[in-house]
Design the sequence.
């Protein structure tokens, strides 16, 4: 194992570290013992990750003399639902979780969001550690303490801010990630460059293809760069009153597409964000905030790495711009009845805007439906 990189999320209280490295799972027990001493540990994971990696995590914790309980929930966005949350909380209570326990969220963004939320409401708050297993979770969802589940009325509408005590990102776990999932995570990587780091976009232009083909050094560099950016943003704006809003580039659009499909896997979260980010560039160009050439640069980059640039044609589902708009009006970022959107001035500079009219929005939404 190479020495892991460390990024600190510096907060007024409860600062924590993100450790990033290949094969970190092997030393997870040692790291937890050093930082948290003797605690009862509850690992919560999902079926696929359990089949691939639970043995390795369990072994590492046994070596560090931990007593552990394991709970496995079904994988997939469908697990971010009330009934799964309720079952998980009851399983944890039955297994004897206490206020001084440590819960490990071991999986992708779905597990991180679900388990983080469970930890925040169980016994009025139990400590938890994120061990993210997807690219999306390593660069984004495991960091920053946003937790939650979906409602039939919209994405992530039920949740809390509950920061983890530590994030352990073992980049070797990404070796088994299906290509489509890796690419979906890559969309969030590109997002960081688009909102605040033009130099990183240049690096992705050079290294993006290698990264999505599994090159380890490119992968580690990208995870560390995104975590540094996110840590800095969250340190300044933990509860999303300002700068943190920029991390939602493409998300208000993306959440509308996901809600339109009842959160099934025909469109992954990262794919929805990718198309949503293009729409944000398009809208910004039409409104005169940024040059059309910036939109083209982003589109070409997506084409190069094979990210989607249009909402795909699906059997038995007809997309509708009007329906997207009604989903967007229920987004949690609506303030004083106005949709808060993230627009751009150029690659590397995003800003918040709540003045976009519905007619131009409908035109843009319509332009990205593959017909
Ligand atoms: P996910 O957790 O569903 O994982 C994607 C798929 O990969 C699943 O099928 C899973 O079983 C599989 N998988 C996980 N790890 C694997 C591995 N190492 N090898 C092989 N397969 C593996 O999805 P995701 O893309 O990680 O996360 C998406 C979720 O994250 C969405 O619900 C989204 O709302 C949420 N999210 C939250 C935040 C936040 O700040 N809290 C930010 C971004 C996204
Ligand atoms: N993924 C957006 C945020 O954490 O704020």
Sequence:
């Amino acid at each position: 194992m190479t020495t892991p990189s460390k990024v600190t999320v510096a907060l007024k209280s409860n600062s924590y570290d993100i450790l990033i490295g290949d094969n970190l799972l092997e030393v997870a027990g040692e790291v937890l013992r050093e930082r948290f001493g003797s605690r009862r540990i509850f690992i919560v994971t999902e079926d696929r990750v359990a089949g691939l990696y639970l043995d390795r995590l369990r072994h590492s914790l046994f070596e560090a003399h931990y007593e552990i309980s394991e709970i496995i929930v079904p994988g997939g966005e469908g697990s971010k639902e009330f009934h799964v949350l309720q079952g998980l909380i009851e399983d944890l209570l039955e297994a004897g979780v206490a206020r001084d326990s440590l819960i490990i969220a071991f999986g992708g963004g779905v597990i991180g969001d679900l388990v983080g939320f469970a930890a925040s409401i169980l016994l009025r708050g139990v400590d938890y550690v994120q061990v993210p297993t997807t690219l999306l979770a390593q660069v984004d969802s495991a960091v920053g303490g946003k937790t939650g589940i979906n409602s039939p009325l919209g994405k992530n509408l039920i949740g809390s801010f509950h920061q983890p005590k530590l994030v352990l990102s073992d980049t070797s776990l990404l070796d088994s990630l299906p290509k489509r999932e890796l690419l979906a995570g890559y969309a969030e990587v590109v997002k960081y460059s688009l909102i605040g780091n033009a130099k990183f976009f240049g690096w992705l232009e050079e290294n993006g293809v290698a990264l999505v083909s599994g090159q380890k050094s490119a992968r580690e560099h990208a995870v560390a760069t995104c975590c540094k950016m996110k840590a800095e943003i969250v340190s300044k704006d933990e509860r999303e009153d300002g700068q943190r809003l920029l991390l939602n580039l493409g998300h208000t659009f993306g959440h509308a597409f996901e809600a339109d499909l009842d959160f099934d896997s025909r469109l992954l979260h990262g794919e929805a964000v990718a198309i949503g980010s293009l729409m944000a560039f398009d809208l910004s160009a039409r409104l005169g905030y940024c040059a059309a050439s910036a939109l083209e640069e982003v589109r070409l980059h997506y084409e190069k790495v094979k990210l989607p640039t249009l909402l795909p044609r699906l059997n038995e589902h007809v997309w509708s711009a009007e329906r997207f708009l009604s989903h967007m009006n229920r987004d949690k970022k609506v303030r004083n009845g106005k949709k808060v959107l993230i627009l751009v001035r150029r690659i590397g500079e995003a800003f918040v805007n709540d003045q976009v009219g519905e007619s131009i929005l409908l035109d843009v939404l319509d332009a990205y439906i593959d017909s």
In short: Residues 46, 48-49, 52, 75-77, 80, 107-111, 113, 133-134, 136-137, 140-141, 144, 146, 156, 173, 176-177, 181, 184, 269-270 surround nicotinamide-adenine-dinucleotide (ligand 1) (CB under 6 Å).
